[in-house]
Amino acid sequence: MSAIHSRKPGWTTRIMPRTRAALLASALAIGMTGVVAGEAVLFSDGHANAASTPSAVAPASFADLVERVSPAVVSIRVKEAVQPEQSSFQDLPDLPRGHPLERFFRRFGEPDGRNFGNRPHHRRHPYAMAQGSGFFISSDGYVVTNNHVVEKGEEVTVSTVDGKEYPAKVIGTDEKTDLALVKVDGHNDFPYVSFADKDIRVGDWVLAVGNPFGLGGTVTAGIVSARGRDIGAGPYDDFLQIDAPINRGNSGGPTFNLDGKVVGINTAIFSPSGGSVGIGFAIPASTAKQIIDDLKDDGKVVRGWLGVHIQSVTDDIADGLGLKDAEGALVSQPQDNSPASKAGIKAGDVIVSVDGQKIDSAKELARRIAGYSPGSDVKIGLWRDGDNETVTVKLGSLKDAGGKTVTSDAGAESDLEDLGLSLAPASDVAGAGDNGVAVTDVDPSGPAAERGIRTGDIILEVGGKEVSTPKDVLAGLAASKKSGRNATLLRVRRGDSARFVALPVSRG
């Protein structure tokens, strides 16, 4: 389930559903009174024991920092058009003046505005107001906020800490990272803040400044509780988790480090109640800087495109491929005429590095490739047929990142029975096509069913080799067993998409 984008009228902070509680249970809310750093206990009054270092001690007060950065933080008010409800009487014809129904319609304010006697009438045009936060990044009025704050706005108003209001226009938005850039014109003297150049660490102090519940100019303090959080909000999730309280209306506001640099943009909270419970999420500055630069340049974000369907490498898949660790991104299918296919990347390859930097997961690969400009030449490290290889790919321009896939598996003579599978050549099964081996029956309590195999799936490859008969499938299972592997990797098609699935090898 992805994070909830809808919100109650008037507020903008996204609230994560209760079902994410298990995912986030490991996040510990840490109080302001003190934290343990190594053997040193640091207190917010500036005192530290003998084992601590002065540079690690939190200030006795954040007041000087707040005084310095808060003038650059703004409240954002957005006027949104609301789709009127369809009238129950919309199909009635215009009625003559004096018609018996005229009083009825006027009394109940029929929004469809029946026209009596061809008199002019006006339709109501309802609006709703939403509020969020943002911050100036330049003296000439560029403001960073969240996409979900302004995406439906017809009018945007920016309010500064001294109460002045300015009309603003949306320069560009990026739904995938939930970032937006707006501009106040006609001024060149706005106070502004900058993004941090260095990464923040778990345990570092942070301040969140924004417009919770429309109150404006509110400051809260806490620490970075975790990094690299994936909350299901989009394909490039890489959130900071902070315990500085943020609430509805804080969306788009900055999170500062103790140097007064922006380390994150507050975007979502986890909350069973709708209020802060000490688990908030911010887009890291490293992500925001690049996106905002693109939006400032031409109002849109252009990402590099590799052109592969990928999936994570599980322990079973790693074992089936002979990989030491369950890392990297498994290519289940290169897209036709994509940069990847032109460079020779094929199904079954595991992408383990990009320009020499290790890739731990499919999500990380997506983020890394998106960070390159179209036309960039990147070196892709592959694990292929038990060896490391490197290919150079000229990235294209991302239009549609494609998606994931779904599928199935198979087994071996008695292995087939053990796995709970019945097979037949695809060419012998109506509607299955001419290639591969069709799954004609699946034992719902067997290992194959547990891994998602369904009747009608088509097995295309076993152990990296194409199969066309059940005998080919058996041979592939036997080869895996002989090699001492604990799993066999199958490439399976369901509908128009394909995916790899690792089935356990029977040890007899």
What would your notes on this structure say?
The protein has helices spanning 21-24, 63-69, 102-107, 147-150, 285-298, 315-321, 339-342, 362-370, 413-419, 447-450, 470-482, and strands spanning 14-16, 34-37, 40-43, 73-81, 127-136, 142-145, 153-159, 165-174, 179-183, 205-210, 218-229, 239-242, 254-256, 262-270, 280-284, 304-305, 308-312, 329-334, 350-354, 357-358, 377-384, 387-394, 396-397, 421-425, 437-442, 458-462, 465-466, 487-494, 497-504. It is of the alpha+beta class. Strands 10-11-12-15-14-13 form a 6-stranded antiparallel β-barrel. The protein is elongated. It is built from 11 helices and 29 strands.
In brief:
The chain is α+β, with helices and mostly antiparallel strands. It has eleven helices and 29 strands.
Low-confidence stretches: 1-10, 17-55, 87-92, 109-122, 400-414
- The N- and C-terminal alpha carbons lie at a distance of 40 Å
Percentage of residues in strands? 25-35%
| Radius of gyration of CA atoms, rounded to a whole number | 29 Å
Structural class: alpha+beta
Strand ordering within the main sheet: 10-11-12-15-14-13
Number of strands: 29
Mean pLDDT, to the nearest integer, reads 78
Question: Biggest sheet, open or closed, and with what strands and sense?
Answer: 6 strands, antiparallel, barrel
Instruction: Indicate the overall shape.
Output: elongated
Please tally the helical runs, counting DSSP H or I stretches of 4 or more residues. 11
Fraction of residues in H or I helices: 10-25%
Keywords:
508 residues, alpha+beta, six-stranded antiparallel beta barrel, 33% strand, disordered N terminus
